[in-house]
Amino acid sequence: MPEIKVTPLGAGQDVGRSCILVSIAGKNVMLDCGMHMGYNDDRRFPDFSYITQNGRLTDFLDCVIISHFHLDHCGALPYFSEMVGYDGPIYMTHPTKAICPILLEDYRKITVDKKGETNFFTSQMIKDCMKKVVAVHLHQTVQVDEELEIKAYYAGHVLGAAMFQIKVGCESVVYTGDYNMTPDRHLGAAWIDKCRPDLLISESTYATTIRDSKRCRERDFLKKVHETVERGGKVLIPVFALGRAQELCILLETFWERMNLKAPIYFSTGLTEKANHYYKLFITWTNQKIRKTFVQRNMFEFKHIKAFDRAFADNPGPMVVFATPGMLHAGQSLQIFRKWAGNEKNMVIMPGYCVQGTVGHKILSGQRKLEMEGRQILEVKMQVEYMSFSAHADAKGIMQLIRQAEPRNVLLVHGEAKKMEFLKQKIEQEFHVSCYMPANGETTTIFTNPSIPVDISLGLLKRETAIGLLPDVKKPKLMHGTLIMKDNSFRLVSPEQALKELGLAEHQLRFTCRVHIQDPRKEHETVLRVYNHLKGVLKDYSVQHLPDGSITVESILIQATAHSEDQGTKVLLVSWTYQDEELGSYLTALLKKGLPQSSS
Amino acid sequence: MAAHLKKRVYEEFTKVVQQQHEDLSSKKLRLTKPSKSAALHVDLCKATSPADALQYLLQFARKPVEVESVEGVVRILLEHYYKENDASVRLKIASLLGLLSKTAGFSPDCIMDDAINTLQNEKSHQVLAQLLDTLLVIGTKLTENPSVRMRLVEVACKHLTDSSHGVRNKCLQLIGCLGPVEKGVAKEIESQAAKDVQKIIGDHFNDQDPRVRTAAIKAMLQLHERGLKLQQAIYSQACKLLADDYEQVRSAAVQLIWVLSQLYPESIVPIPSSNEEIRLVDDAFGKICHMVSDGSWVVRVQAAKLLGSMQQVSSHFLEQTLDKKLMSDLRRKRTAHERAKELYSSGEFSSGRKWGDDAPKEEIDTGAVNLIESGACGAFVHGLEDEMYEVRIAAVEALCMLAQSSPSFAEKCLDFLVDMFNDEIEEVRLQSIHTMRKISNNITLREDQLDTVLAVLEDSSRDIREALHELLCCTNVSTKEGIHLALVELLKNLTKYPTDRESIWKCLKFLGSRHPTLVLPLVPELLSTHPFFDTPEPDMDDPAYIAVLVLIFNAAKSCPTMPALFSDHTFRHYAYLRDSLSHLVPPLRLPGRKLVSSPVSPSITPHEDPSQQFLHQSLERVYNLQHLDPQGIQELLEFTIRDLQRLGELQSELAGMADFTATYLQCQLLLIKALQEKLWNVAAPLYLKQNALASAAAKQILEETYKMEFMYSGVESRQVVIIHHMRLQAKALQLIVTARTTRGVEPLFGMCEKFLQEVDSFQRCFISELPHMQGSFVDKLLDLMPRLVTSKPSEVVKILQTTLRQSTFLHLPLPEQLHRATANIIEPTGESDNPLRFTSGLVVALDVDATLEHVQDPQGTVKVQVLYPDGQAQLIHPKPADFRNPGPGRHRLITQVYLSHTAWTEPCQIEVRLLLAYNSNRSKASAKIPKSTWSESLEALPQSENGIEGTIPFSKPVKVYIMPKPARR
């Protein structure tokens, strides 16, 4: 039985370093190639030696697909392609392709320049890696090779985030990447058609959460910021350089404009300009509002938001700072956090999910004393707020997507095991489809029941549909034809054509049968009696009495001869071709019962 | 039959061919045959290839065909149809047949048989579909004939088994449009064909082609529209279609379900997979709610829209639509709305700093959580959060409609509506504000909600702010803090956007009069009075101070204890404001002071009664006078007119009525005066000069009648008759004057004829009203009509003159409601001394902001006129989008007028005013009179009478100082 095998190298019952291997109908596809925020050792990248111990990865993988530019989905890409070695195609959407190298470069800088690590990928490697990337458009079907095709759907999570459908023949897998089912200030909602894949691999970050309406969340956020600023406090919002940051920027920008506030808003690092540039360019990937209004004013041209300089952190007075990275594990956000943590007037708003082990996770879980590098103890007096702005689908959203796509199987990744368990149970209960949640390195095998397409010649189709009743959707229809399996393709043709193609002569197969009847009369009288009998019984068929003394029922021939030994026994010879098997056997059975005696 | 026809056509055809050879006789042929068909025929015969023929047909299709020749053309076309091998040409012919049968006045039953016959041998599916389309056209023209319809339906049923979706599509459409609707008729002809049409269509609900499925549902809906009661059995079928793969099917299915839910709201349907049963309307509601989270936004819009009109749904289901259980890490979490409400009820609100309550509370039983609710759960929550603003608007509209019918739902949906005030798309915000206003009777705003509402006052869009002011006008606030908050925010708004002044004052007026008891404790603070110290007197012209006073005075109206809190200057300011802003400041009973207000205020009896009585009495007095000779009458009329005008000024409710009648009496007065001129006694050549008065009177009466007809809303046909009658009299007067002053008879002929025609058309238009007009001018005139028609102009004039003098004064019945259209230009104010400078030859944009009241169809009628000092006048048609409709009967025009002129030496004033354009064609009479008579009379009327267009100035002109500078070289 054909099967689809899925092995997560990362993100199996875990969040971070998403990397999922899928083998479908003999094709091997790697979905995402991310790094893990929580580790600084070998564990930060997926274990590619699982794929092959020696030899190039290119021989084992048909393609790599990157769903979006977050580092936990693409962070290991240069390592994978340049250091481990992969030369095959890498697919991503246009915005992802544009923004991905910026983030990789940033990541490299932090790791190599700040932490002084060696044996890390270089800028050149990032460039080389990006050369292998093939950009795809939304809803564009890309033929990777003759059989494997992929198609991107809008996922809404960040700019350029996409869900991918991987299809070989009739078998298909949809990988969602990260997605968001509720639209936000700058992106629309994820959407997929009823593609009915064999397997849907979905993220499940918020498997056990149903969120409040986004408007309430936005209002809460704005209120928090506004109040702190009015108190004269400073607000730190750790964000990933791209994505959430832009949404929050738009939100604050419009709010500032509406409320006529004067406190400065800063956005850290030079990334912003570059990133905003791309946001301005990829307007088609944003939401309805931005797409409609950009003719008057591009929403990403901020009026109130300025670039941040390190020195500003010590300025007196209120301010709002967006700083990277989002989980407070390194970089500028951590620096600013250290400076501001001591003052209770200040506030840090964590707008997204924090991986275990990061400072963000620690302060969110209520730790007030943090051990920093060099045995320093940092006391956190500032307010810590958590605002679920993370653009992942919540439990309802995930269910909604499953309802839209109607998959036959669901596989959950990118979430915590305990939460997945709950969602898994819900999915099985409500959709009656099987659901899997493999851990890293664990292989899930799904058996598929693919339908096999067969080409049929139009002539035959028309001829066969013309016979009998109207086509009815509910009933299967019986057809006669010859199935030719040749060169990996199937064709259904009429028997004549099949014979012609194969160069065979037509053979006729006839069944003959002798039936003994006790009848003392003359042969032709017997024949007449048989004729009358048959004529009486088989009203719907054409029964003929031929001049040479034989009877035909349709194409079945019946002849009668007297038995050579016993003249009282007549032998009826019944002969039919195999096409008329049904009628022929019926006829013999009828004749074997004998002729009715009543007729004289 | 067909064969016979074919033969006939064929004969025609052969004739033509034969005669084509002889040039001479071909002319003869064209005289005998309809030229069109022959020409076409010749063309078609000449065509050597299908492409050629197609070209000829295309050319032919561009030209109209006269009714008489349609049949001939059809025959020719059919003839070619039979011979033609090329499918595309046949297709074109088939479509032409359809077009031709649409020709007005042509009855297509004669070609129906042929069209049906052509169906039989047709192989091409496209042509078949087109032919069926043609049959549909024929069928819709012959709807009165049941047998034709039956026949066509039968034909359609036969082709339903076709393998092409196009043909099936058309068949279903045909059945939908023509299928028998009345039960009785269906039974009679049952023997022939018609089984149950619904069943036939229903069978195609699961056709393999989505387009056919859609067509089937649409056909069903069509049947419903035509009055057939759909069977309930369809419901379950339709429910299955909701899960269809194709959006157009789902969209149509949603409609069908809605229709069924309206037809059988109370029937009981089982819930699958359980033993329970619920009402059909509830079930349908649940299903449509489910479609609000459909994958296609078209379906979502459709579903959200329909939800609004399902008012029979039980409240339990209705309230579920706003329900969304939150959880976080499997623990129940309360929504922000619930938290806000709790904070409020615990009296702890306002700081907003306690966020700890955000934390999730109790654990949830994992088994009990239902992530995908069947039915209505959270439908509106989803709809309001949708990606597409179209869906959000539809959801807001639906909320509005449902909330209007259910107060408890209104209370519940408030939180969501308030949230929508922060939507990113302005249209949605505006829509939700309007919605809130509509349901404001049912609700009271909590403070936290008010807070969110008021935050929107800072919005930079004027529409939003004004809509919000409107909303605040009719909002109920629960606490005095709420009032204070609203006032503070409104004042903030005032400083930020000074142009909102009027609107804010008005808003505060209503706020004060609605919440007197809440304002009372705030008064000392608002007026900043102090128990011991005198505080400085505030600036009287400060708009903010005026705003506060407006609030307080309006509250004081129903709160007699309040004036005690006022300080001296407040009383003085009251007197001033009562005079200058009388529409905002109500009359008050102030202690130690004579009543400043109008004499009626002490008694609480309705104001209208005495004044209305007065109005009627004075009218009675006038109408009692039958003959119009003596001097006394003139005086009486003059007095009455004066009285009425004064009454109108005093009583705004009666202003329309009083003005209207005054105008009428004025016309009458003018007429009387004109008729009493001495000139009538003098011999013709002598009074050339003197006629000035009479002709001016005639002119003025004409103008006034147009004003009466078009400037008042609420005028009914009874009044229109009188007005037209008055106009007729004026025209008669004009005719007489002209007859007297001009020499020669020729010009009189035309005028007389025209006048008679007018009388004629008057008779036609108002035939039903004539019995009420005993003894009037027109009544007498009509009696004399036979004589008038035959007599000479001079005699006509004589007759007219005597009739005019003898005719009685018609009683003008008053309608219930009568409002005069008024306009008030708010901007430009006309106060500025700084001229608007611009370079001559270029344009300058002048912002015009005006309020219009009681103007019907302002988009079509209101114009802006600019008068330059050199007498040049410019008429500007504002764009339809420039008109906003803030409330019933009120409109607001915010537009820009472009000015330009050649250079002036010094600044000068131009005048801007609003005009009401009218066209006597659009007369109100036309709406009241049955169509047929009107169109008949229209045809009979000469063009000149049809389209008298003109304008009535209806606003005070505003002067704007401008200065076009010469361009620098």
Automatic annotation (TrEMBL), chain A:
Q: Which Gene3D superfamilies match?
A: 3.40.50.10890, Ribonuclease Z/Hydroxyacylglutathione hydrolase-like (3.60.15.10)
Q: Required cofactors, per record?
A: Zn(2+)
Give the record's GO CC terms. Answer: cytoplasm; nucleus
SMART domains per the record? Beta-Casp (SM01027), Lactamase_B (SM00849)
**Which keywords does the record carry?**
Cytoplasm, Hydrolase, Metal-binding, Nucleus, Zinc
User: Can you provide one Gene Ontology molecular function annotated for this UniProt record?
Assistant: hydrolase activity
Compartments, as annotated in UniProt: Cytoplasm; Nucleus
Report domain Beta-Casp positions.
245-363
Metallo-beta-lactamase domain boundaries = 16-233
Tell me where it mainly resides.
cytoplasm
- GO biological process, alphabetically ordered: snRNA processing
Pfam families, A to Z: Beta-Casp, IntS11_C, Lactamase_B_6, RMMBL
- Mark the transmembrane ranges: none
CDD domains, alphabetized? INTS11-like_MBL-fold
PANTHER family attached here?
A: CLEAVAGE AND POLYADENYLATION SPECIFICITY FACTOR FAMILY MEMBER (PTHR11203), INTEGRATOR COMPLEX SUBUNIT 11 (PTHR11203:SF37)
Q: Which family does it belong to?
A: Belongs to the metallo-beta-lactamase superfamily. RNA-metabolizing metallo-beta-lactamase-like family. INTS11 subfamily.
Per its record, how is this protein called by name? Integrator complex subunit 11
Which source organism does the UniProt entry give? Oceanodroma tethys
Query: What gene name is listed for this protein?
Result: Ints11
UniProtKB/TrEMBL annotation, chain B:
Q: Main localization of the protein?
A: cytoplasm
**InterPro entries on file:** ARM-like (IPR011989), ARM-type_fold (IPR016024), INTS4_8HBD (IPR056235), INTS4_C (IPR057412)
- One GO biological process from the UniProt record? snRNA processing
Q: Look up keyword Acetylation and say if it applies.
A: yes
- Annotated keywords: Acetylation, Cytoplasm, Isopeptide bond, Nucleus, Repeat, Ubl conjugation
One of the record's GO cellular component terms? integrator complex
Matching entries from Pfam families are given as: HEAT_2 (PF13646), INTS4_8HBD (PF24493), INTS4_C (PF25458), PDS5 (PF20168)
Where can this protein be found?
A: Cytoplasm; Nucleus
Is Cytoplasm one of the keywords?
yes
Domain INTS4 8 helical bundle, chain residue ranges per copy:
612-815
- Which residue range or ranges hold the Integrator complex subunit 4/Protein SIEL C-terminal Ig-like domain? 824-966
Tell me the domain of life: Eukaryota
What interactions and quaternary structure are annotated? Component of the Integrator complex, composed of core subunits INTS1, INTS2, INTS3, INTS4, INTS5, INTS6, INTS7, INTS8, INTS9/RC74, INTS10, INTS11/CPSF3L, INTS12, INTS13, INTS14 and INTS15. The core complex associates with protein phosphatase 2A subunits PPP2CA and PPP2R1A, to form the Integrator-PP2A (INTAC) complex. INTS4 is part of the RNA endonuclease subcomplex, composed of INTS4, INTS9, INTS11 and inositol hexakisphosphate (InsP6). Interacts with BRAT1; interaction is required for the assembly of the RNA endonuclease subcomplex.
Q: Which family does it belong to?
A: Belongs to the Integrator subunit 4 family.
Query: In its UniProt entry, what is this protein called?
Result: Integrator complex subunit 4
Q: What is the species of this protein?
A: Oceanodroma tethys (Wedge-rumped storm-petrel)
